[in-house]
Design a protein that fits this description.
The chain is an alpha/beta fold. It has two domains: about 375 residues, 3-Layer(aba) Sandwich (Alkaline Phosphatase, subunit A); about 70 residues, 2-Layer Sandwich (Arylsulfatase, C-terminal domain). About 25% of the residues lie in helices and about 15% in strands. It contains twelve helices and 16 strands. Strand 14 and strand 15 form a beta hairpin. The chain is globular, with a radius of gyration of 22 Å. It starts with 10 loop residues before the first helix and ends with a helix. The N terminus is likely disordered.
Length: about 525
């Protein structure tokens, strides 16, 4: 049974990883060590074999541009930013140290998360969807929402969408925004069409702009943070500094309408901490490192409110709660001559925040800092508390994992989720064998890299047009090979020393591209 949409918001409302968990056998001369190790192993095995009797509620919180090192449980100093509720997910669940977005930029990761398919298999080969682009996901393609809906779930998408609306470009925001999330399996959507500061300046509810009064346009709508012109829509203007509270209110209102005891799937796609940096008045001025870390606190407050709502419903014990990010964080420009659009990020970095931890690079780039993201899973019935998993997983694996939880075998990769591999085994036991053998990542310019074991091969060929001068100067645009186990900072290119490894990985990359699937 589908829920009805919650009532529209009022105009006033719109106004460094820790210690690595080791395998349970600890060699030593004392017999009790072996006995204890066997007991731990047996308990772990018992947990991993425990059948899933009751399908869980599912909440996925996808932060925007939140780097690996930007929250407390991944190494951010409490003196700079406080994230007690995000950290609670780690204390009461599992923290992944090798979770990866499929792309180092927004749209492709959202596509991959919802479909289990690499976005470069779609018409979007590089970059992101424009505000005026049509819906990127085909309406007959299975998604997380349509998957769980078949199992009786109520479904909602709240927050940043960034996957387009309609069938043609340019999208007419004064008309019906269809197809969209509702044609992909969601019962309800309340969305920011693209980003904080996007040219729409409004929310979308279901198939129309929220509060749209007429098709009239403001002849002098002004310009956005990005320098483009607002659409000038005749609808309540969005206050980006209130996005996080308003979106959280909408999520809680929707949850209230889900009948108690019936399963639900909430995809909450946060606008924090994407530029422009617009922390709410609830948190402004509360962090030592400035507005950027204030904005991270907005994320933490959303997690707090969602957890409290689950507890109030009596649903917290059997809710699979995932918190992650769409890509690595932004950093101040490497070129001191470049215009700094994010002085708040520079302020936080200069105060000591390691936005992406110790990983090299940032959003848009091919280095690990563009892909390594926080990934926390809380599911008290099945996921061991205060556990850490160092296995390589991807956000793209969420589809296969949820399918396995629901007892639904994946169809042939030609039909659905061609690149998704279930990580349910490591959710139940973080030292279980790694279910994922290799993984492909992709930067904003369309450069591919592939990882397998300790090796990472960067192909170095952008699919986007790149000026010849940039091709020569940018280190991302050349083949490279790194051994991440020995060199996690990607400082030593091993291509000349191990050409056979590079050739093997290049062949595997081409195989996965040409076959149309990688699982």
């Amino acid at each position: 049974m589908n829920t009805t949409a919650p009532p529209s918001a009022t105009n006033e409302a719109l106004a460094s990883p820790g210690g690595v968990r080791k395998p349970p056998f600890l060699p030593g001369p004392c017999g009790w060590v072996l006995v204890l190790a066997l007991a731990v192993s047996s308990a772990s095995q018992a947990r991993s074999e425990q059948p899933i009797i009751e399908p869980p509620n599912i909440v996925i919180v996808l932060a925007d541009d939140l780097g690996y090192g930007s929250v407390g449980c991944y190494g951010a100093a409490e003196a700079l930013v406080r994230t007690p509720h995000i950290d609670r997910l780690a204390h009461e669940g599992m923290k992944f140290t090798d979770a990866n977005s499929p792309s180092s930029v927004c749209t492709p990761t959202r596509y991959g998360l919802l479909t289990g398919r690499y976005c470069w298999r779609s018409p979007l080969k590089h970059g992101v969807s424009s505000v005026l682009d049509p819906l990127l996901i085909e309406t007959d393609r299975p998604t997380l929402a349509s998957l769980v809906k078949r199992h009786g779930y109520h479904t909602a998408m709240i927050g940043k969408w960034h996957l387009g609306y309609g069938e043609t470009r340019p999208v007419d925001f004064t008309g019906m925004l269809k197809p969209g999330p509702l044609e992909l399996g969601f019962d309800y959507q309340f969305a920011v069409p693209q980003n904080n500061g996007d040219m729409t300046g409004v929310y979308v509810e279901n198939h129309t702009v929220f509060g749209l009064r007429s098709a009239n346009r403001d002849p002098n709508p002004g310009t956005t943070f990005y320098g483009s012109t607002y659409l000038g829509l005749d609808a309540p203007a969005r206050d980006d500094s209130r996005n996080m509270p308003v979106l959280t209110d909408k999520a809680l209102a929707w949850l209230e309408q889900v009948p108690r005891g019936e399963p639900f799937f909430l995809y909450f796609s946060a606008t924090a901490v994407h530029e422009p940096i617009t922390p709410s008045s609830d948190v402004a001025g509360t962090s030592a490192a400035g507005p950027y870390t204030d904005f991270i606190r907005d994320l933490d407050l959303t997690v707090q409110r969602l957890l409290e709502a689950l507890e109030e419903r009596g649903a917290a014990g059997n809710t699979l709660f995932v918190f992650t990010s769409d890509n690595g964080g932004v950093l101040p420009p490497e070129n001191p001559q470049a215009k700094d659009r994010n002085p708040s990020v520079r302020q936080a970095v200069e105060a000591g925040l390691q936005v992406n931890g110790d990983w090299r690079g940032r959003k848009h780039q091919i280095w690990e800092g563009g892909f390594r993201v926080p990934f926390l899973v809380r599911w008290p019935k099945y996921v061991p508390a205060a556990s850490q998993c160092d296995r390589m997983i991807g956000l793209i694996d969420t589809y296969a994992t949820i399918a396995e939880i629901l007892g639904e075998p994946l169809p042939a990769p030609e039909s659905a989720a061609p690149d998704s591999v279930s990580f349910l085994p490591v959710l139940r036991d973080p030292v279980a064998p790694n279910p994922r053998d290799s993984m492909i990542v992709h930067n904003a310019r369309g450069v591919f890299a592939i990882r397998q074991g300790p090796w990472k091969y960067i192909e170095g060929k952008p699919s986007a047009p790149v000026p010849a001068q940039q091709l020569e100067r940018n280190p991302e645009y050349r083949p490279q090979l790194y051994h991440l186990q020995d060199d996690p900072g990607e400082t030593k290119d091993m291509l000349d020393q191990f050409p056979n490894q590079a050739q093997r990985l290049a062949a595997l990359l081409e195989k996965h591209r040409s076959e149309g699937y990688s699982r």
